[in-house]
Amino acid sequence: MAKKTFESALKRLEQITSELEDGEPSLDKCLKKFNEGIDLVKFCNLKLEEARQRVDLLIKQNGSLASADFHKTELEDGHQDLSD
Would you say 36 and 28 are in contact if contact means Cβ atoms under 8 Å apart? Predict the structure, then answer.
């Protein structure tokens, strides 16, 4: 079995979402897919948090490592905050 990646988990999550939207014939199958989706969301969130932590380490400010608020920086640059 291939190693699970963020991209493969996200693709499977999109597939599950589509299948649930199309209507599964049984409640039991829907619940199994929903539970699989929850596990995939948790995995994706973990991978995103790991990536955020690595990015934080790479951001340098005044010669020392510092973290920057992504949304604040984005808004200061004149880009729209799409999180709402």
Answer: no
Rg (CA), the chain: 18
Q: Could you tell me the CA-to-CA distances from 10 to 7, 16, 65 in Å, in that order?
A: 5, 10, 31
Which residue has tokens 């939207």? Answer: 21
Reduce the DSSP state of residue 60 to 3 states and report it: strand
Q: What is the pLDDT of residues 7-54, one digit of tens each?
A: 999 999 999 999 998 886 789 999 999 999 999 999 999 999 999 888
Spatial contact of 41 and 13, defined as CB atoms under 8 Å apart: yes
The model's pTM is 0.65
